[in-house]
UniProtKB/TrEMBL annotation:
This is Diacylglycerol kinase family lipid kinase. Pfam families: DAGK_cat (PF00781), YegS_C (PF19279). NCBIfam families: YegS/Rv2252/BmrU family lipid kinase. InterPro entries: ATP-NAD_kinase_N, Diacylglycerol/lipid_kinase, Diacylglycerol_kinase_cat_dom, Lipid_Phosphate_FormReg, NAD/diacylglycerol_kinase_sf, YegS/DAGK_C. Residues 3-139 form the DAGKc domain. The keyword Nucleotide-binding applies. Coiled coil: none annotated. It comes from Candidatus Abyssobacteria bacterium SURF_17. One of its GO terms (biological process) is phospholipid biosynthetic process. One of its GO terms (molecular function) is kinase activity. Keywords: ATP-binding, Kinase, Nucleotide-binding, Transferase. Gene3D superfamilies: 2.60.200.40, Probable inorganic polyphosphate/atp-NAD kinase, domain 1.
Length: 312
C-alpha cells in the first residue's frame, strides 16, 4: 500500500516497551511491512539519538519520519524536525508506531496502539497539523536548554514522579508504573513555591503541587489531565494545582484519570500562548515522560507547526 507516497524513514528505539521492541523487531517489522512495503529503519543507541537521526533524514529528503517507541522517543523525533529554531521542512509529516510505557500522545489524536492498525494509518492521506510547544529551562549542570514538545510538559510533583518511574522497571505497563510512581512520590513530596505568569492575563506566586502546560490531553500513563485541550487551537491548556495534603491528594487521584478534576477548588484552569515560571526551590520538569531539567522555564506555543499522520 505504501505510506501515502511519502518517502519514509522509521526511527526505532530498541529499548522501548521495556526492551521488547528490540527482541520483537523482526515480527514488528513484518507487521509494518504488510501495510507499507519496505521498511527503511534506523535504530537509536543513546539519549537524543532519535533527534539526530530525524534531523539527518529530513536533510536527506525523507518526507515522513515515523517514530517507533514511546512518548520520549516521539519527543526526540519532533525535536529533529527543527534546526536552529526553524522547521527543516514545514511539509514533513510525523508518523507514530507507539511502543511506549505510557503511549499518551496517541490517545488525543486517536492513533491506534495496535501495530497493524497504526501501520494502516501510515498508508492513508489524512494528516492533522498540530501545534508544538517550545521551552527553555535550566539543565542540572546549570546550562541553558531549549527544546520542543508536542504533548505535555509540567513541573512540580510530575518532574519528581517521572524521575522515580524512569529509575525503576516499567515491565508492569504504563498505568501501573506511573500510578505507583505518583503514589510513592506523594508520600514524600512537599509543595514548591513558584512564580507563574501566563501571557499578560495572570501572574501569581504560590505554593503548588504541580503546574501542567498541555497541548495534548493525556499524560502519566493515561491520566486525562487536560480534557479540554486541542492540539490545533494555538493555545496551551494550563492547570495550576495548589499544594494539598496527602489525604486530599489520594482522595482525588482517581479524578485525574477520569478528567473530572477541573472543578476542584485547588485547580486553576487557564489558556494561553506563553507560560513563564521560576522558583527559589529546585523544581523539576517532566516533558513527555522524561525528566529534562528544572526551573526557571519558559513555554511558548508554535501554532500549526508539524503535520501528524492520523486515521482517515
Amino acid at each position: 500500500m505504501g505510506t501515502g507516497n511519502f518517502r519514509t524513514k522509521f526511527i526505532v528505539n530498541p529499548a522501548s516497551a521495556n526492551g521488547s521492541t528490540q527482541k520483537l523487531w523482526n515480527q514488528i517489522e513484518g507487521v509494518i511491512r504488510e501495510s507499507v512495503g519496505a521498511v527503511d529503519a534506523s535504530f537509536t543507541a543513546r539519549a537524543n539519538h532519535a533527534t539526530e537521526l530525524t534531523h539527518r533524514a529530513l536533510l536527506d529528503g525523507f518526507e515522513m519520519v515515523v517514530g517507533v517507541g514511546g512518548d520520549g522517543t516521539i519527543n526526540e523525533v519532533v525535536n529533529g524536525f527543527f534546526n536552529a529554531g526553524s522547521l527543516i521542512n514545514p511539509e514533513a509529516v510525523l508518523g507514530v508506531i507507539s511502543r511506549g510505557t505510557g503511549s499518551d500522545f496517541i490517545k488525543t489524536l486517536g492513533i491506534p496502539k495496535e501495530i497493524a492498525a497504526a501501520s494502516r494509518t501510515l498508508c492513508g492521506h489524512a494528516v492533522k497539523r498540530c501545534d508544538v510547544g517550545r521551552f527553555t529551562c535550566k539543565g542540572h549542570d546549570g546550562s541553558d536548554i531549549e527544546r520542543y514538545f508536542i504533548n505535555i510538559a509540567d513541573f512540580g510533583i510530575g518532574g519528581e514522579t517521572v524521575e522515580r518511574v524512569n529509575r525503576t522497571t516499567k515491565a508492569l505497563g504504563g498505568f501501573v508504573s506511573f500510578f505507583y510512581g505518583a503514589v510513592s512520590t506523594l508520600l514524600t513530596y512537599k509543595g514548591k513555591r513558584v512564580r507563574v505568569r501566563v501571557d499578560d492575563s495572570y501572574e501569581a506566586e504560590k505554593v503548588v503541587q504541580n503546574v501542567i502546560v498541555a497541548n495534548g490531553q493525556y499524560f502519566g500513563g493515561g491520566m486525562w489531565i487536560a480534557p479540554r485541550a486541542q492540539v490545533d487551537d494555538g493555545l496551551f491548556d494550563i492547570l495550576i494545582i495548589d499544594d494539598m495534603g496527602r489525604l486530599e491528594s489520594f482522595r482525588n487521584i482517581v479524578k485525574l484519570y477520569k478528567g473530572a478534576h477541573l472543578d476542584h477548588p485547588k485547580v486553576l484552569y487557564l489558556q494561553g500562548k506563553t507560560v513563564v515560571a521560576d522558583s527559589p526551590d529546585v523544581v523539576l520538569l517532566d516533558v513527555e515522560g522524561e525528566q529534562i531539567g528544572r526551573l526557571p522555564a519558559r513555554f511558548d506555543i508554535i501554532p500549526a507547526a508539524v503535520k501528524v499522520k492520523v486515521e482517515g
